[in-house]
Amino acid sequence: RKYIRYSAEILREYGVTEYEIWNEPNIANFNKYLNNRRGDVYAKLLETAAEEIKKADPSAKVGGPSVTGINGHWGKDYFSEAMDAGMYKYADAIVLHPYEQKAPEICGMDENIQWYKDKYREKGIDDPDIWNTELGYTTADDNVADEETKGALNCRTVLLYKSKDLGERCCLYNFEQKGTILTDREDRFGSVSPAS
Fold first, then answer.
1. How far apart (Å, rounded) are the C-alpha atoms in residues 178 and 150?
2. Are the C-beta atoms of 154 and 139 separated by less than 8 Å?
3. Is the pLDDT of residue 195 over 60?
4. Residue 76's closest CA among 31, 39, 45?
5. Out of 104, 125, 131, 183, which residue is the most buried by the measure of CB atoms under 10 Å away?
6. Distance between CA 61 and CA 82 in Å, rounded?
7. In angstroms, what CA-CA distances link 115 with 80, 100, 142, 145, 185?
């Protein structure tokens, strides 16, 4: 608790007012104890973090659970578990990572994001903030093909989410490409190429 409050006090000095708690806790890459630490445990972590952050800065906003795979059961099940454990009482914003490989107008991701928003509505919170803190396309996917297409898909995605009130925050992953291997999905996200 002291570490969380201390961190929030330091970050407040730099103008940080919004906090995303954890990154993709619904996949084993970022939660090696996933089988034993599900959404209910995440909700308790978020409660503690939110309480301490708001002690340091009462105006701060806290978001979670930063799930990926939001169009499938592993995103929705984890989110539902966290909601059943009271996450909505402490998360001011729903944080999602809505990655897709198809064009935003046809992939149905907007309907999936709406599903999460509706879960808050069922708890009496009519218009929760949605923070899409990781989204974007990679040229390693066959249907994206080139940088121009990737840029167009990224722009269309943000415009779609904004027009439907499904993204108070839309952050493209990643600013810079991580590498140069053309078939590596992680390498080929990013808006700018690494220096040669």
1. 16
2. no
3. no
4. 39
5. 131
6. 18
7. 11, 16, 28, 30, 27
Record the tokens describing residue 109, joined without a space.
């991701």
Q: What is the pLDDT of residue 194?
A: 64
Q: Is the peptide bond before 174 cis (omega within 30 degrees of 0)?
A: yes
Write the DSSP symbol of residue 109. Answer: H
- DSSP letters, 44-86, are HHHHHHHHHHHHH-TT-EEEEEEEE-TTSHHHHHHHHHHHHTT
Query: According to the model, what pLDDT value does residue 180 have?
Result: 85
Task: Give the model confidence (pLDDT) of 100-153 as tens digits.
Answer: 999 999 999 999 999 999 999 999 999 999 999 999 999 999 999 899 999 999
- Measured between alpha carbons, how far is 168 from 127 in angstroms, rounded to an integer? 11
Cβ(132)–Cβ(98) under 8 Å? yes
Per-residue pLDDT, averaged over 14-30, amounts to 94
Report d(CA 7, CA 9) in Å as an integer: 5
pLDDT band, very low/low/confident/very high, at 196 (cuts 50, 70, 90): very low
Structure token pair of residue 9: 């006090």
- Of 122, 123, 63, 126, nearest to 97 by C-alpha is 63
- 79 pLDDT more than 50: yes
Dihedral sign from CA coordinates of 191, 149, 100, 92: positive
Which amino acid is present at 52? E
Cβ atoms 25, 42 nearer than 8 A: yes
Mean pLDDT of the chain: 93
